């Protein structure tokens, strides 16, 4: 018998691998009844990372209740409190980016993780990633507006402060850009 | 009926009734399991009476089950390690939220209310035998 | 002779573990955790309270496995606790809803609701008695004829004190408590940290320090116990946060409110020359009356510190009453310290003029 815990443990392993190798792409096969407006891989990530100790923010009216029911996580309308922010790319605004918490020097882990649904990973703008976990450079194409990447670079300019990003497309492909990664638009 | 009320009646006075209800009707009400009965903890938050502030006094072992029928969720959280009761409680919660098997449940709950009354009555009488009657001392 | 760091002993250690496990076994004399649960209620109460984990089955299991060794049983439960996810926080538990099975006041004879003795060893002769049997017969006694009692809604003695104008209730403080299981205590400690730390303190340590406080190393005043209650406390959770909470079960609690005549200095600023009462508060898992009374004494002494008294020093009290911390530290001393001791030896020898 496979239970939810088996699935989230497997997904967690995938996330750890992806965090260690920024820009690598994996497909999630996590299968669960999904009543949110997000792809299954987003829900899988939420189920894996959320518990009743975390605070999250998401925009659509329908999703907070579902996330809360499934994980016990606390929904907060206040972005600057959120440990996790789950959004679709088109919902990103400069205000959203500016409100994200980047942690403190004493506790850099008290920062936001951004889970973003994008149209496609594999097509779109080409990004070149460098930094820890990447031998020379990783190239990745995705439909993600470069201006958000520039915002991200600003938020991550004072390491160890910063934000981590998990990008997920509609075909349940995932990639991770942690705060240590340097991104360039090509 | 408030959740507080029916959950107390089933958990405290109607364990067997709850499990039996689940066994009888589980095939009638379709549901998916979100999470199987799992052991975990609930931290107890208390208000103290000296300064009326709050503190955490410790954790109690609980068993939690979550099931759903489409958008409706059934939650069963019970004290201790008790997968059967937790499962049954989540099923009852789901039924009550869906509004199915209302009459059957109402009937059981009515019987449990009587059971509760009898228990409380007897227990109270038993305890009150140890109530001090100071007037007796002057006799 | 010089020492070097060594490894080894795997086989000896394995043999020691086997010997420890086997020595428990006397054919036909084994008891199950169920036996412990059925017979060792008060031991279970102490273990649950010190472990800060309420579950009679797990506590019984731990006691059996630890051969009745308290510190070991508490350690086992704390360790087990750390493997479990914390799924919920209860709604604010209101002890006024406790189904009271025992309640006495040492301060007022005629408390509203009366003195209800319940089950207690307080009134027994302390003579070893091998005729103790667990009868199924009913307790003898008269049921008060006029009773219309709701034992889950008994008036509290502090209400009576308040109605007499001798105690002023503080406004409700709903700030989120600190949690010492998530973040270590920092000093000066908050009240929620103190109460959480005291309630999970080692019974003996809390009792001793409470005694110290009263005997003359602290506030040194005889507290008056307003009320000791033991009863079944319903616990609720409200995951949706809409006020429609679930009941999850009852836990047995002991609650104490101790009256302390407030200091002149304390009241001077508020109402000059008017003495009122302050309260020391104790609350523990299970029936743990002595510990809870001592907790109320220490709660007061830590919240209203007298100058230069050890029991008013939160670091002194709180960092030393935890069973796992204190027994863990003391017992680790017997484990190999070959290298550290070697360096001590070296220094001693050097001072003696150097011998290789």
Automatic annotation (TrEMBL), chain A:
Entries under Gene3D superfamilies matching the protein: Bacterial phosphonate metabolism protein PhnH
Family annotation (NCBIfam families): PhnH_redo (TIGR03292)
One record GO biological process: organic phosphonate metabolic process
Organism in which the protein naturally occurs: Salinicoccus halodurans
Pfam families, per the entry: PhnH
Transmembrane segments: none
Protein name, UniProt field: Alpha-D-ribose 1-methylphosphonate 5-triphosphate synthase subunit PhnH
UniProtKB/TrEMBL annotation, chain B:
InterPro entries given in the database record: Phosphonate_metab_PhnG (IPR009609)
Protein name: Alpha-D-ribose 1-methylphosphonate 5-triphosphate synthase subunit PhnG
Example GO BP: organic phosphonate transport
A Pfam match: PhnG
Automatic annotation (TrEMBL), chain C:
Pfam annotation, one family: PhnI
Domain of life: Bacteria
Name assigned to this protein: Alpha-D-ribose 1-methylphosphonate 5-triphosphate synthase subunit PhnI
Gene Ontology MF term list: lyase activity
Species name: Salinicoccus halodurans
Any one biological process term the GO annotation gives: organic phosphonate metabolic process
Alphabetized UniProt keyword annotations: Lyase
């Amino acid at each position: 018998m496979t239970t939810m815990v088996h699935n989230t443990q497997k997904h967690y392993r995938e996330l750890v691998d992806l965090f260690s190798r920024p820009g690598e792409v994996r497909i999630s096969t996590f299968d669960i009844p999904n009543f949110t407006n997000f792809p299954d891989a987003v829900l899988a990530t939420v189920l894996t990372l959320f518990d009743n100790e975390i605070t999250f923010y998401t925009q659509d009216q329908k999703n907070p209740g579902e996330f809360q029911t499934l994980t016990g996580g606390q929904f907060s309308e206040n972005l600057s409190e959120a440990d996790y922010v789950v959004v679709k790319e088109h919902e990103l605004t400069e205000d959203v980016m500016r409100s994200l918490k980047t942690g403190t020097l004493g506790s850099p882990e008290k920062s936001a993780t951004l889970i973003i649904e994008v149209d496609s990973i594999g097509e779109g703008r080409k990004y070149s990633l460098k930094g820890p976990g990447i031998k020379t450079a990783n190239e990745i194409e995705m439909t993600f507006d470069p201006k958000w990447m520039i915002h991200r670079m600003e938020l991550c300019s004072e390491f160890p402060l910063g934000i981590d990003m998990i990008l997920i497309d509609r075909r349940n492909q995932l990639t991770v850009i942690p705060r240590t990664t340097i991104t360039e638009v090509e | 009926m408030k959740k507080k009320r029916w959950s107390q009646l089933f958990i405290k006075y109607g364990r067997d009734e709850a499990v039996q209800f689940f066994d009888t009707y589980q095939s009638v009400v379709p549901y998916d399991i979100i999470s199987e009965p799992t052991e975990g903890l609930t931290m107890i938050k208390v208000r103290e009476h000296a300064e009326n502030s709050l503190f955490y006094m410790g954790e109690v072992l609980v068993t939690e089950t979550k099931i759903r029928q489409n958008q409706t969720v059934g939650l069963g959280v019970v004290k201790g390690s008790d997968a059967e009761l937790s499962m049954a409680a989540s099923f009852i919660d789901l039924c009550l939220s869906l509004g199915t098997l209302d009459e059957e449940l109402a009937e059981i709950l009515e019987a449990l209310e009587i059971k509760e009354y009898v228990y409380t009555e007897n227990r109270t009488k038993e305890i009150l035998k140890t109530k001090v009657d100071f007037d007796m001392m002057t006799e | 002779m010089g020492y070097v760091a060594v490894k080894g002993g795997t086989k000896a250690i394995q043999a020691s573990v086997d010997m420890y496990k086997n020595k428990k076994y006397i054919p036909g004399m084994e008891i199950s955790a169920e036996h412990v649960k059925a017979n060792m209620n008060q031991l279970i109460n102490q273990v649950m309270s010190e472990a800060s984990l309420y579950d009679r089955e797990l506590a019984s299991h731990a006691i059996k496995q630890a051969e009745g060794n308290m510190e070991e049983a508490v350690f086992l439960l704390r360790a087990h606790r750390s493997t479990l996810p914390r799924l919920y926080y209860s709604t604010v538990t209101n002890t006024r809803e406790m189904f009271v099975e025992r309640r006495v006041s040492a301060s007022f004879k005629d408390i509203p609701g009366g003195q209800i003795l319940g089950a207690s060893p307080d009134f027994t002769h302390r003579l070893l008695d091998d005729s103790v049997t667990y009868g199924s017969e009913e307790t003898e006694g008269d049921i008060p004829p006029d009773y219309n009692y709701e034992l889950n809604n008994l008036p509290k003695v502090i209400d009576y004190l308040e109605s007499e104008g001798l105690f002023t209730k503080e406004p409700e403080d709903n700030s989120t408590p600190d949690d010492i299981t998530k973040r270590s205590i920092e000093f000066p400690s908050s009240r929620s940290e103190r109460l959480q730390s005291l309630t999970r303190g080692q019974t003996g340590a809390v009792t001793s320090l409470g005694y110290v406080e009263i005997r003359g190393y602290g506030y040194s005043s005889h507290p008056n116990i307003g009320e000791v209650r033991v009863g079944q406390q319903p616990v609720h959770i409200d995951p949706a946060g809409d006020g429609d909470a679930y009941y999850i079960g009852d836990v047995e609690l002991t609650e104490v409110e101790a009256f302390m005549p407030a200091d002149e200095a304390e009241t001077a600023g508020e109402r000059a020359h008017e003495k009122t009462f302050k309260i020391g508060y104790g609350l523990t898992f299970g029936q743990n009356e002595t510990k809870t009374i001592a907790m109320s004494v220490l709660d007061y002494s830590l919240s209203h510190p007298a100058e230069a008294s050890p029991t008013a020093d939160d670091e002194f009290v709180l960092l030393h009453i935890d069973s796992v911390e204190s027994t863990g530290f003391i017992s680790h001393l017997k484990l190999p310290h070959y290298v550290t001791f070697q360096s001590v030896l070296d220094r001693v020898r050097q001072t003696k003029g150097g011998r290789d």
